[in-house]
Amino acid sequence: MAAQSTLRHTAAEEAIAAFIDKYTEIIRTKLRRTSRTARLLSTLALATSIILAGLCARRRWKRKRAEREQGQKLVRTNSWLHNSDGSRTIYVPYINRDRPAKVVIHTTKPLTFQAHRRLFLNPPRVSGLGDGHVPPTQTKPGINLAFLHQILSLMSIMIPRWNSKEAVLLVSHSAFLMLRTYMSLVVARLDGEIVRDLVAGNGKMFLWGLVKWLGLGGFASYTNAMIKFLECKVAIAFRTRLTRYVHDLYLNDNLNYYKIHNLDGGLGSAADQFITQDLSQFCDATASLYSALGKPFVDICVFNYQLYRSLGPLALAGLVGSYWLSGTVMGKFSPPFAKMKAAEGKIEGDFRGLHARLIANAEEIAFYNGAETEKSFLNREFKALRDWMDHVYRTRIRYNMLEDFIVKYSWSASGYLLASLPIFLPAWGGLGGKSEQAGRAVKGGRERARMKDFITNKRLMLSLADAGSRVMYSIKDLGELAGYTSRVYTLISTLHRVHAAAYHPKVGEDELFSLSDVQGTTQLGFDGVRLEHVPIVAPSLWPQGGTELIDSLSMIVRQGDHLLISGANGVGKSAIARVIAGLWPVYRGLVSRPKANGEDGIMFLPQRPYLSIGTLRDQVIYPDGEADMREKRKTDAHLRGVLDLARLAYLPEREGGWDTRKEWKDVLSGGEKQRMAIARLLYHEPRYAFIDEGTSAVSSDVEGLLYDTCKKKGITLITISTRASLKKYHTYHLILAEAEQLNGSDGGSGGGGVRWELQRVGTETEKMHARRELEELREKLAQVETWKARHAEIERELGKVWVEGAGEEEGQPLPPPTAYVVDDDDDDGERGESMGKGVGVEEQQQQQHETEVERTDDEADYQEAQEMGVDETETEGGTLVTAEVDEDEKSAAGEGSGVVV
Ligand SMILES: Nc1ncnc2c1ncn2[C@@H]1O[C@H](COP(=O)(O)OP(=O)(O)OP(=O)(O)O)[C@@H](O)[C@H]1O
């Protein structure tokens, strides 16, 4: 054996050596024939190309390394890159890879949205999705024409071009599906052959059949795995397209993310459920249905043809008949899966929404100790979900029974029947029948031929039954897909409606101040903030009309004219900011404002400070990212200066640097959050800024400094506050108040009874107003003096009544008025006076009763005054100040005696 192996080894080596010699000789001969110069040149070319390839490889490696480092830095700083074509490059950290993945995101073009409006806002009448009017009315989800229109419309987003990645994935998926069908055919034939050889006792062929079987099995397994893989890839690709499209439509300058909840209301409060869960389920269902329907469809065509050939036309008619019957019966008894899925999505969304609310408001709920109440809300919602799921499962039992019986048993029975055709009715039995007739002549070969044909046909029929059952099961899946499709279509059509402001009422149904009644104009690019005859209206959800807060407001704020807007709670102060920011519609009149948000434009600081996810740096520069900051040539040192001005210089050290990531809304205190908002203002340096109660939690000394800093930076401030004390930092004062509270106003009046008045701070008119107010206060004070005198008089009289004791005359002494301290010194004279006046018992009792009533009223007033801690409000030189109650005056007013004026 060893000698044999050595021999074989030597032979192999010799063969290799001969091969090398042969080709070396060829090269040598060729080289000998070429000239010296050619040889030199080719050597040079070879060396150059090697050097160039090396250089390229090095450069490529360097670029990759720089890219990787940049990616890691961008991930750390929560930032991205702007590309010249308007796209963004972001780096996504992989969980089990040290390198982040690079993703380029292209924003959907406005033209694409316009082109798609036709599909989502003006569906064809035949689809039954509304009557051509926008917004389209909702249809019941189901397998109908509306479903066809919806899925085709969504397909135009998911597969935008025939050469897109998604189309390529689908084509490869289809190729593998067809390959698997072909393999099933080959397997069916091989199965028949193996059984035939086994029955015939042909061992060699039987073993060879097994080898082929195993080889085929390996390839079939690969095909199946690829089908699954490509199905998932298609689902992810669809989801990526749809999610990016929805995000571009949802989060843009038109503020659709605000309007969809606050103005349109078409999605309820669960847009997140639509975008996350429903969208993902829709994509999974579409991709799996493609393979669930695509493969069985191909299978059915191919296997039916094969069976037609081997079993004859009667078998084909039988097969088609059994499909038709099964489809009709199952269709009749099928529950409305689409509707059920759509309803399930909604209830799931509501439940999830409640949990999201709990997380967002955890601190507030914890302070109120509201866990029990929140739990009962959650349990109630979950019960609704559970009841619904119970109902769905119960409905499914009947359908599953029917489905199982039809697919597993009735089809196999008909399969046996059809397979017996060539045996019992050979004339009608196709190829099988013919071979049956031929086999009768060959003794012994008949059984074997029958066996082979039967096994092949049985396998074909099994595959056919499998394909048919998948089609039948897919009817249910198709119904569920219709439910998801309806939800996703509703999401995108609602977004298109909000984006295009496509609100058209039916004739004669236009409500005042509804979304279809928006007639105002917004002028962007104005250097200032101007409102001309603009009604301030709190909008209601479409199609209801809004509530008018102020009927016509006109004002103008120019550079350097700082304006304070004050008024009672709920009067509509923030509403003005909402109208100017474009959150609420301009129903009438003209609104002019700067175009840009932020630098050189306008900025709005909302009442509730917002802190984003990300690093500490992101909190200061929001809504900019680090890339924007670098583009503006601003550095961390600049940010430190900004924080210093906002009195937050200690934050970077305390929190461990600029790149620290935390849940900032929980980390920063109320005042710190407000100062962070001011820091943002100082970073962006806009020309105009709305500050809505932006310093209410900041101490008054720091408040003054912040205002001065902002003004020094050239920011024109428009402050919204209930505190008139902020007036000293402003040039103008817009007062909003109920009509009766605003005397001598030369402003406008609101339909809701709200009037407005614009005053210049510190002018003669304002001083006059202040003087008038002072006069009124003095008058009130004089009244107080009169009340004091009257009170003393009553006390004296009461004292007399008590001492003389009218009850004594009756033999029933009156109980002493315990709340009153009787001054003995004064008593005698007054008692005499009283007696002299001859006050009767009844009269005295009446007097006492009246005094007690008066005392009760006065005590209530006093308590109120004490709770407020202030006595009256005075106006000095255009600044409202509050005067504390003078302690002496308090006691004089009866604190000591228990009587208050
Ligand atoms: N999204 C909304 N939809 C409908 N009405 C709203 C909406 N937001 C506020 N309102 C109503 O509009 C009115 C004015 O609200 P606004 O927030 O402007 O009050 P405000 O004067 O700023 O009060 P505060 O001093 O309490 O902040 C209130 O009656 C409020 O209930």
Strand content: 5-15%
Structure class? alpha/beta
DSSP, total strands: 15
Describe the oligomeric state of these chains in a short phrase: single chain
**Attached small molecules:** adenosine-5'-triphosphate
CATH fold-level name of the largest domain: ABC transporter transmembrane region fold
Mean pLDDT: 80
Tally of discrete structural domains = 4
GO molecular function: ABC-type transporter activity; ATP binding; ATP hydrolysis activity; long-chain fatty acid transmembrane transporter activity
Region (Disordered): 807-901
Biased composition (Acidic residues): 855-875
Coiled coil: 760-797
Descriptive notes:
By secondary structure, this protein is α/β, with parallel strands linked by helices. It folds into four domains: 140-419 and 452-500, ABC transporter type 1, transmembrane domain (ABC transporter transmembrane region fold); 509-559 and 571-595 and 731-761, no CATH class; 596-725, Rossmann fold (3-Layer(aba) Sandwich), CATH 3.40.50.300; 771-895, no CATH class. It has 28 helices and 15 strands. The strands form four sheets. It has a six-stranded mixed sheet with strand order 9-10-11-7-12-13, with helices on both faces. A four-stranded mixed sheet has the order 4-8-5-6. Strand 5 and strand 6 form a beta hairpin. It starts with a helix and ends in a 6-residue tail after the last helix. Residues 262, 538-539, 549, 567, 569-575, 607, 722 line the site of adenosine-5'-triphosphate.
